[in-house]
Amino acid sequence: MAERPGSEFMLISNLEVIPDRRVVKHLGLVQGSSVRAKHVGRDIMASIKNLFGGELVGYTELLSESREEAMERLTAQATAVGANAVLNVRFSTSSVAQGAAEIYVYGTAVILE
Amino acid sequence: MIFQIIIFLVLMVAGYLIGSYLERRHYRSIIQREAQYRNVVAVASRQLPDDGAEYTQRLVTGNVTVSVDYFKRFLATLHNIFGGRITSYESLLDRARREAILRMKAEAAALKSPLVLNVKYETASVYKGSGNGIGSVEVLAYGTAMIPKASNHGV
Amino acid sequence: MEYENPEIPEGINTTSTHPLKNLAVLLGGLLVLLALGAWLLGMTGAYLAAKIPYSQELRLAEKYAEPVAASTPIERYLQQLADQVGRSMELPSGMKITVHYVDEGTDNAFATLGGNVFLYRGLLEKLPNENALAMLIAHEAAHVLHRDPIVSVGQNAAISMGLMVVLGDTGASGILGSAGLLTQLQFSRSMENKADEAGLLAVQRIYGHLGGALDLYRVLESISDANPVNPPAFFSTHPVSEARFSHLSELIAENGWSANGDVQALPESFSVWMTDR
């Protein structure tokens, strides 16, 4: 769920059908993506962590931030086409280069009544 | 050593100039075709349309493999050191996805379908290049095209 | 339900910073970081290397420079002079200068790990008297005394390691190998000045005066004047400059040494020894 200044609260859900609400109009696919790199500091910490095991906090944070940004962009696209909800949201993570992960999220922009 | 530096600089300049020209050309083509296929709607929903018409379904796909130029690749290596958004890859992935969707829509349009349901993407990094760098990205977009029965005459 | 396909504006999933500006900022930042990192690493490497005991350095050096006993007349003469310089310089026990004579025409001389000093025929030929030769040996011996070779290796090794960590393993074949050839160790200007001082003191003690010792620097200057475009290898590791001369003159004045005196001639068969193998 992302709240952006100046826009209504945008409902983002991976449900097909929202209970008690009807889809008035489908506005096509919208997507948000984010490609981020880790920097050298995180890399070094991760190498050290790889010796001892455990959660790689640096990477978790990196990917969380990436996902936040991707969601924000999704909301921006949905707002731009005039939707008030995005349904059937799916996430996808792919490694596009060593040290960089692309997160994208896509769904159907709809107007719910 | 000097020779390597010269080759590097030549590749960088060529990559930058030719790469950005090709990218702009691709974007123009994408925007033009998006306007052309404005009547084909692609959605991620699986809900069948409730307008009572009868449809047949066909799986339609569109895929493309896009690569980046040398300049952007070098820029990405620098980003790898400092972290943050890799701006050079963003446009690569944007182009690849939009192109894949357009090709899928083209297939749907050829079948006279106005609607593609349950659209999904698959992204794969195809050619990793020399070790660290990104090589090319392959994006596959697929969905179910709903073809109105009425237009199935003779198909 | 209705289906529509409105146009989505550009620029949401891409960033519009101009790539050249991006490149400039990133490269600039990277260069600054690298310079800073190299400087820091160099300091650390130098500090740590100086702490390595000399006995360890000797063992390390044995891998690279085979100890060969002085056998030919030239080697014996040079070694005898080096021993005299070593005594005058009061080298600590365990530290010994081993002179290696190289029968090649290049103008070069350098000190490397383990007290090994290499002298080339090209340079020795040009020295006019024994005082100048003693000055050369004393200068190199001073580098050994001050542990300059191992400190230099330490600096280079630290920087190489740093680069490997940051930029990923680019296949550097051994840290010491890529740390710079042991024959190309670059000593900083302060190291050179200190070596000059200690060398001068040692030569002064042997002969009682510095006549002839400064001939070494005159010879070096004439060599560099004769080769302005392509300085011989010596000068990549031993830059000669005005500052160095004035520094030496200051030293001599401060200590009240005499810059004149009877020079000691080289042995008569010196030039014969050099080419006789």
How would you characterize the overall build of this protein?
The complex is a heterotrimer of chains A (113), B (155) and C (277). With 113 residues, chain A is of the alpha+beta class. Chain A has a domain at 11-36 and 67-112: Hypothetical protein apc22750. Chain B (Translation Initiation Factor IF3, 2-Layer Sandwich), CATH 3.30.110. Chain A has helices at 40-52, 57-81; strands spanning 11-12, 23-39, 85-97, 100-112. A four-stranded mixed sheet of chain A has the order 1-3-4-2. The radius of gyration of chain A is 17 Å and the shape is elongated. Chain B is of the alpha+beta class. The radius of gyration of chain B is 20 Å and the shape is elongated. The model of chain B has no long low-confidence stretch (mean pLDDT 85). In chain C, helix 1 (19-50) packs antiparallel against helix 6 (148-167) and helix 5 crosses helix 8. The model of chain C is unreliable at 172-181 (pLDDT under 50). In chain C, strand 3 and strand 4 form a beta hairpin. The A-B interface holds A 16-17, 23, 26, 28-29, 31, 33-42, 62, 69, 87-90, 92, 94-100, 102, 104, 106-108, 110 and B 41-47, 76, 79-86, 89-90, 93-94, 97, 101, 119-121, 123-125, 128, 131-134, 137.
A few lines on this structure:
With 113 residues, chain A is an alpha+beta fold. Chain A has two helices and four strands. Chain A has a domain of 72 residues: 2-Layer Sandwich (Translation Initiation Factor IF3).
Q: Number of helical runs of chain B? A: 3
The CATH C-level name of the domain at 11-36 and 67-112 in chain A is Alpha Beta
CA radius of gyration of chain B is 20 Å
Total DSSP E strands of chain A: 4
CATH homologous superfamily designation of chain B: Hypothetical protein apc22750. Chain B
Q: What is the CATH topology descriptor of chain B?
A: Translation Initiation Factor IF3
Tell me the strand percentage band of chain B.
25-35%
Strand content of chain A: 35-45%
Order of helices and strands of chain B: HEEHEHEE
Low-pLDDT runs of 5+ residues of chain A are 1-7
**Poorly predicted runs of 5 or more residues of chain B:** none
Number of domains of chain B: 1
The geometry of chain A reads as elongated
Strand order of the largest sheet of chain A: 1-3-4-2
Topology:
The complex is a heterotrimer of chains A (113), B (155) and C (277).
Chain A: E1 11-12, E2 23-39, H1 40-52, H2 57-81, E3 85-97, E4 100-112
Parallel strand pairs in A: 1-3
Antiparallel strand pairs in A: 2-4, 3-4
Chain B: H1 2-36, E1 41-42, E2 55-67, H2 70-82, E3 83-85, H3 87-110, E4 115-125, E5 136-148
Parallel strand pairs in B: 1-4
Antiparallel strand pairs in B: 2-5, 4-5
Helix pairs in contact in B: 1-2, 1-3
Chain C: E1 2-3, H1 19-50, H2 54-64, H3 73-88, E2 98-102, E3 109-112, E4 116-120, H4 121-126, H5 130-145, H6 148-167, H7 175-178, H8 189-207, H9 215-226, H10 233-237, H11 242-255, H12 270-275
Parallel strand pairs in C: 2-4
Antiparallel strand pairs in C: 3-4
Helix pairs in contact in C: 1-6, 3-5, 3-8, 5-8, 8-11
